[in-house]
Amino acid sequence: MTAIGTSVARADGPLKVTGQVQYTVDTQLPGMLHAKVLRSPYPHARVLAVDATAAAARPGVVVLTAADLTNLDHAFGVALRDQPIVAIDRVRFVGDPVAAVAADTPEAAEAALEFIDVEYEPLETVMDPEAAAADDAPVLHPVERPRAPMFVGWPAERFRGSLNVCSGYHVEQGDLDAGFASADHVFEDTYRVPPIHHGNLEPHAAVASWDHRGHLNVISSTQSPSIVRLQLAEIFGLTENQVRVVVPYVGGAYGSKVYAKIEPLVAAIARKAGRPVRLVLTREEVFATAARHACTVHIRTGVRNDGTIVAREVRAFYDTGAYADTGPRASKKGGYLAGGPYRIEHQSLTSYCVYTNKAPAVAYRGFGVPQVVWAYESQMDDIAARLAIDPLELRRRNLIRDGDTFVTGDVLRNPGLDEALEAVAEAGDWGSPVPEARPGFAIGRGVACAIKSTSTPSNSAASVRLNADGSVHLLTSSVEIGQGSTTALAQVIAETLSIPVSRVTVSLPDTDVTPFDQSTISSRTTFSVGRAATDAAAKIRQQLMSLAASQLEAAVTDLDVDEGSVFVRGSRDRSLTFAEIIRRHFGSPAGSLFGDSVFQTRGGLDPLTGKGKASATWFYSAAAAEVEVDLETGKARVLRIATSADVGKAINPAQCHLQNEGSMLTALGSALFEEVVYDAGQPTNSSFLDYGMPSLEDHPLEFHSILVEHPSEDGPFGARGVGESVISPVAPAIGNAVAAALGGARVRELPISPERVLAAVDQQPEARA
Amino acid sequence: MQPFELLQPRTLEDALDRLADDEEARPLAGGTALVVLMKHALLRPERLVNLKRIPALQGIDWSSETGLRIGALTTIREVEQHQAVRTWFPALAEACHVVANVRIRNLATLGGNLAHADYQSDPPAMLIALGARVRIRSVSGEREEPLETFLVSGYQTTLEPGELVTDILVPPPTAGRRMQYLKFTTRSAEDRPCVGVAVSLGLEGTACRDLRVVVGAVSSTPVRVAEGEELATGKVLTPDLIDEIAGRAASAVDPIGDVRGSPEYKRRLVQVLVRRSLLGSVTEVSA
Predict the structure, then answer these.
(1) Domains of chain B with bracketed CATH
(2) Is the N or the C terminus of chain B less surrounded, counting Cβ atoms within 10 Å?
(3) Within the 144-173 window of chain B, which residues sit less than 8 Å (CB to CB) from chain A?
(4) What gap in Å lies between CA B230 and CA B237, rounded to an integer?
(5) Burial of residue A623 (number of CB atoms within 10 Å: 0-12, 13-18, 19+)
(6) What is the pLDDT of chain A when averaged over all its residues?
(7) What is the pTM assigned to this prediction?
């Protein structure tokens, strides 16, 4: 069989492009009400009073306020339980839910919102994460919030400053002072990244209902059915088997739908209404629900004349907005990866997760890593320029290699990083002369590379069923968010059982039926769920072999499997199809065989030392960009980009290339123009009219995606994962190309807007030549 | 969005009657602006008068004597693709082509675009450079007005309640007239303009007979660079003269700072883009 490494067409493709797929937003239940949310107009205020009497008096209207939260454990959050379902006594960002209304129509619900009176007392706001960390900053959460059971706690006290620092991470190795003392050059810079928007096409949506047993049923566009079930059970005092989370196809997520978001609110108002309730966010509300962490990165690096990096100190301030959400985890990840994929003897890496009065920052493709890659890969080219070493060569001299021990203590096995870097350099014609620019323009090239880890420890269960007709079913709580997981998972099962891919169907999550999966996050689905599915399918294969052994009167060791049949090696005519084996076994063409498996990764980092085993597998990637800069307007246009990722093994090469292309275009937007803008605490561009995202017309004229295959130890068929690999190196590759075009003038704050480019040119007039 | 009643008149007279009956009723053309405003509750009309089923508001006519008549309900896409527009007003076709994306252009109408008077838009500056006028009807009669004075401020026109733009009229171009529309975006290629520059240049031999330079998307209405236009009259547009006109353009605008650029940056861009437009127009002549 050759199911692996084949670009099998995705099963859900035709259904999606012809509009036949049902998403959560399409869900209709009998008697269903529609919810709307009243949101704070203030970035920070005390809520003195909420009077919903007039709204509740309207016919058919149900109102949810803080007063309804008294008999439940209302605060949620996957790291710190700091986010109330609706505001209790304080609002912390523009858009913070204050009350919700359910009514027969969305219009009636919206109309009723106007009959809720809220009395606010505005408080001082803080919008910058570094300012918020200072001990004199206005505090958002005066009472420290309890840690969620799932989160390995990081003692925030070590990292304060103010109570706004809700988590921190630190790791070090060597002797930083000695390292800097041994350096010939020291580079010290600050890099900044603004909040950006995920742009998931399907907004957050959820439908909740309570049945006669008092069990909670939720249909949601979440990426985390198993964890949302857990969180809802905690909030409402239920056991996990009293909560059912069903996830249809999801119309894009990119991290914005990881863990509970709107589900607790919808479940709470459905409980009060005694009827099913649906909430579908507007685009503006999606902006108020999720963003990528803004970040300020201070980076100091000591280098010898020969280009050897000897010391690095990083302090990164992650802006998690009003609530922690995944901030403590994303900032931890960014923290230990802030030194980059380099051998550096002396390191001190620290990250701070800080509350500000912005919308909550949550998981976003790359999970805290692109922020620090932007810093260390940009600075890398400043180092190269100062030492007059080619930027590619400088990286070569410092790259981690097979068997190296990472700053966390992880030993890196078989990294495909050097190959990824060389591949983009070659595809980008690195080393050959840059094309001559038109008058008034300049062209430059840049490269960058990155390393990313996956959420560890984590676990995924898979349940495979072989039906009597030889068809196969995978039960999994993995979410098809558009990434093609249902296709890739069918491929690993088809390969294991030596059957056509078309004979395998993959379930969508239904936690009453499908087994636990940590979440569809962290580029882990092919690696973890794929491995569990492979192991589960292998158990069925074993059962088939032993059944066939007695049916064929042959030793198991003489049997092999191919094309959906078990046969005696050396005599293909002695063979039985899977269907025949089952028919003989049950004495009837009815019944099924099943195989269950759990794949578990072990590890984690010690909260005090920051060391341990950070990741079960590692993702390596690189990008090379060629950019034309208009010297009079400052506008940068990406002419070409090459990207590469070490995917371990490409289960479905076409899907891997599409992941890379999607990552590239997303990263291009973040590099050149995306930013959620706040003015005095008010978001000013929370709509697609005013928030620019890349369109196909922004796609570079030339794009290469290169797949490097250095097999991982534990992934199915050596696969690592690919969803987030290319997101990180693209922005610094573009930034480095812009700086190269401008003779070294560098923009250190994203986005690299035309206005900032022009300012960089102005500050370095010699660059104009 | 608040519920509303949708009226669907088949004739212009019927539509005008409906609008006269209810001053709060809003006309609905392509809906690309109005529906967004309603979704954001910036407008909350209880009644909409759909104009899309009125044949009199549709269509494009061209004659070399009277010029171009574009029915107000003509989509931006139809203007962009119309043969007479492409032949006689290639820069107008360009100014329509660069609006948003093809999905928007297939819905948005030229009349709606002008009546909405959003400053961050491409067609108005080009139409002013071409000397366009708008024809306006109400139950009490008809009037015509230059687009330049029709646009009063951001989202403000001279339209009175009950009045509708019915046609956009563009005079025929003089022989050999050069025209350019240059859109500059600071973000996505499909973004609204940060700056748009429209130029219309009439020549006598190599000298400028008349010039119109209009800067769009920078101030609350498109800005005519009158001082620069006068400088050019009767002269050959040398690079030095073009620089001077570009400088006048930068002084003439009062840029609005927004997410697409600061006022200082926009002023600087105006100078660059006006110079490029004029150089482009001149190069085109000598080519």
Answers:
(1) 5-50 (3.30.43.10), 55-170 (3.30.465.10), 178-286 (3.30.390.50)
(2) C
(3) none
(4) 12
(5) buried
(6) 96
(7) 0.97
Asked whether A221 and A202 are in contact (CB, 8 A), the reply is yes
> Given a cut of 70, is residue A769 above it in pLDDT?
no
- Please provide the CATH number assigned to the domain covering A294-455+606-768: 3.30.365.10
Q: Which of A672, A684, A694 minimises the CB distance to B259?
A: A684
pLDDT digits (tens, 9 = 90+) for A625-680: 999 999 999 999 999 999 999 999 999 999 999 999 999 999 999 999 999 999 99
Starting from the edge strand earliest in sequence, which strands make up the sheet with A618-630, in order?
A441-453, A618-630, A636-646, A702-708
Reported as a pLDDT band with limits 50, 70 and 90, residue A765 is low
The answer to whether the Cβ–Cβ distance between A107 and B187 falls below 8 Å is no
In sequence order, what are the residues at sequence separation of 6 or more whose Cβ sits closer than 8 angstroms to the Cβ of residue A317?
A129, A130, A133, A295, A296, A297, A351, A352, A354
Closest Cα of chain A to B49: distance in Å? 20
Q: In this predicted complex, what is the ipTM?
A: 0.95
Cα gap B139→A88, rounded to integer Å: 55
Chain A CB contacts of B188 under 8 Å are 669, 673, 692-695, 697-698
Element (H, E) at A544: helix A530-552
In this prediction, residue B2 has a pLDDT band, given cuts at 50, 70 and 90, of: confident
Position B285 pLDDT exceeds 60: no
Residue A678, chain B, CB below 8 Å: the answer is: no
CATH class for the domain made up of A33-123+198-287: alpha beta
Domain A458-601 = CATH 3.30.365.10: yes
In the three-class reduction of DSSP (H, G, I as helix; E, B as strand; rest coil), residue A186 is classed as strand
> What SS3 state is found at A318?
strand
CB B108 within 8 A of CB B100: yes
CATH 3.30.365.10 in chain A is located at: 294-455+606-768, 458-601
